[in-house]
What does this fold into?
Amino acid sequence: MSRFAGVGLQFALSIIVFLYAGQWLDRKLGTAPWFLLIGVFVGGAASFYSMYHKLMAAQARDDAARKAKREGLP
It folds into this structure.
């Protein structure tokens, strides 16, 4: 479980970074609140993708370890 300790923090930071980037673009281009909203959704999507990728990699490692244990390999 220690592998996933920072997932929540990474999720929040990703959304905040993209939120501020969208806010900055809105101020530069005068398009408020469109880029802010896009930034929040892109940050959330990137966080979910990263979380999914980590979980699937951990699942594959666990499956390989179980298979090796069943076959009697170290």
Summary: The radius of gyration is 19 Å. The longest helix spans residues 34-70. The chain has a mean pLDDT of 91.
